UniProtKB/TrEMBL annotation:
<feature type="transmembrane region" description="Helical">
    <location>
        <begin position="37"/>
        <end position="59"/>
    </location>
</feature>
<protein>
    <recommendedName>
        <fullName>Succinate dehydrogenase cytochrome b556 subunit</fullName>
    </recommendedName>
</protein>
<keyword id="KW-0408">Iron</keyword>
<keyword id="KW-0349">Heme</keyword>
<comment type="similarity">
    <text>Belongs to the cytochrome b560 family.</text>
</comment>
<dbReference type="InterPro" id="IPR018495">
    <property type="entry name" value="Succ_DH_cyt_bsu_CS"/>
</dbReference>
<comment type="function">
    <text>Membrane-anchoring subunit of succinate dehydrogenase (SDH).</text>
</comment>
<feature type="transmembrane region" description="Helical">
    <location>
        <begin position="108"/>
        <end position="131"/>
    </location>
</feature>
<keyword id="KW-0812">Transmembrane</keyword>
<dbReference type="InterPro" id="IPR000701">
    <property type="entry name" value="SuccDH_FuR_B_TM-su"/>
</dbReference>
<keyword id="KW-0479">Metal-binding</keyword>
<dbReference type="Pfam" id="PF01127">
    <property type="entry name" value="Sdh_cyt"/>
</dbReference>
<keyword id="KW-1133">Transmembrane helix</keyword>
<dbReference type="InterPro" id="IPR014314">
    <property type="entry name" value="Succ_DH_cytb556"/>
</dbReference>
<keyword id="KW-0472">Membrane</keyword>
<feature type="transmembrane region" description="Helical">
    <location>
        <begin position="65"/>
        <end position="87"/>
    </location>
</feature>
<comment type="subunit">
    <text>Part of an enzyme complex containing four subunits: a flavoprotein, an iron-sulfur protein, plus two membrane-anchoring proteins, SdhC and SdhD. The complex can form homotrimers.</text>
</comment>
Length: 132
């Protein structure tokens, strides 16, 4: 029984302070955060659709909010979260197919997700600003 006291003073499992953050770990956390952000963005989309159904005056009010610099910043963040989460889902799909488990492949997929999400978001906004 003398060992029981020694075991009670040790941590039960390793914590984030012990693990060295690696890219795939950060990507996992970002995937969860962007998934949660999509809930907020869906509320914004629902509010916009409700405003469209409510009438022109309320629709103009909501469009005024979304068209402000802060509204556009929030919508830009929502767009990035949507694209990043989608690309992260494709990365998981590759893993579900049994591929991409090597260290180089994992790192490449993680970097491609980050770079791809930024480039696709910028492209979507660029096209949207040129058309609109």
């Amino acid at each position: 029984m003398p060992n029981a006291d020694l075991r009670s003073n040790r941590p039960l499992s390793p914590h984030l302070q012990i693990y060295k953050p690696i890219l795939t770990m950060v990507m996992s956390i970002l995937h969860r955060i962007t998934g949660a952000a999509l809930y907020f963005g869906t509320v914004l989309l629902a509010w916009w659709l409700i405003a469209a159904a409510a009438g022109p005056a309320y629709f103009d009010f909501v469009n005024g909010i979304y068209g402000s610099w802060f509204g556009r910043l929030v919508l830009f963040g929502f767009t990035w979260a949507l694209v990043h989460h989608m690309l992260g889902g494709l990365r998981h799909f590759v893993w579900d197919m049994g591929a991409g488990f090597g260290k180089e492949a994992r790192e490449w997929l993680a970097k491609a997700t980050i770079i791809g999400s930024v480039l696709v978001t910028l492209a979507l906004w660029g096209i949207g600003l040129m058309v609109g």
